Amino acid sequence: MSASFKVLSLTDRAADRIKAIMADADRPIAGLRVGVRNGGCAGMSYTMEYAEAAKPGEDVVEDRGVRVFVDPKAVLFLLGTEMDFTTTKLASQFVFNNPNQTSACGCGESVAITPVAEDRIPARA
């Protein structure tokens, strides 16, 4: 499902890293699938995987030359999120700058996210 608004956006660094990863994939990849799942000490974790095609009900975000498929169960948790890629002395990782995130665990593996209230969701075209 395509939306008139972007559920999430990518920084240049995130888009460049996703393009590089997809170029090294061992099979044709249509994009990246992003979602959330229950788990971790803070309650939820972000998920990412290769996507060969859109699944029914997914939002498809095209940003900076990258196609991102958003799991329909994750839309209310990810609305307004910016996906970045950071590199420090100790780690290189994707980072989700999520306005709906209320806390994170100390290890950085899980977060607490409050879904967007349905009356705050932009209208679809």
Strand order of the main beta sheet, please? Answer: 3-2-5-4
* Main beta sheet strand tally, sense and closure: 4 strands, mixed
What letter string, H or E per element, gives the SSE order? EHEEEEHEEEE
Report helical residue fraction.
10-25%
**pLDDT < 50 runs, ≥5 residues:** none
Structural class: mainly beta
Distance between the termini: 11 Å
Overall pLDDT: 84
Give the class-level CATH name.
Mainly Beta
CATH H-tier superfamily? HesB-like domain
Q: Kindly identify the CATH topology.
A: Hypothetical Protein Aq_1857, Chain: A
Q: How many distinct helices?
A: 2
Q: What percentage of amino acids are in beta strands?
A: 35-45%
In total, how many beta strands? 9
In short:
It contains two helices and nine strands. It is mainly beta and 125 residues long.
Features:
125 residues; mainly beta; Hypothetical Protein Aq_1857, Chain: A; 9 strands; 13% helix; globular
Write structural notes for this entry.
By secondary structure, the chain is mostly beta strands. It has one domain: Sandwich (Hypothetical Protein Aq_1857, Chain: A). Helices cover 13% and strands 39% of the residues. It is built from 2 helices and 9 strands. The strands form 3 sheets. Strands 3-2-5-4 form a 4-stranded mixed β-sheet. It has a 3-stranded mixed β-sheet with strand order 1-6-7. Strands 8-9 form a two-stranded antiparallel ribbon. Strand 4 (59-63) and strand 5 form a beta hairpin. The protein is globular and about 40 Å long. 23% of the residues are buried.
